[in-house]
Specification:
Blueprint (H helix, E strand, L loop, with lengths): L2 H29 L3 H15 L5
């Protein structure tokens, strides 16, 4: 295995671990918040980014 292939493999593994950590964090945080609060937060983000709602 070349050095370039080893670096690519390490980068891929790091990306997978980071994605898993982010996903677990989102699920953990969302699991501890009330549904109405999540809805309001999503609604506010849609308005802030200019997307229409309802």
């Amino acid at each position: 295995m070349t050095a370039l292939a080893q670096t690519a493999a390490k980068s891929t593994i790091l990306s997978i671990v980071a994605a898993m950590g982010l996903g677990i964090g989102i699920v953990t945080i969302a699991g501890h918040v009330q549904a109405a609060t999540l809805h309001d937060a999503a609604h506010d983000v849609r308005h802030a980014t200019g997307f229409p709602c309802h």
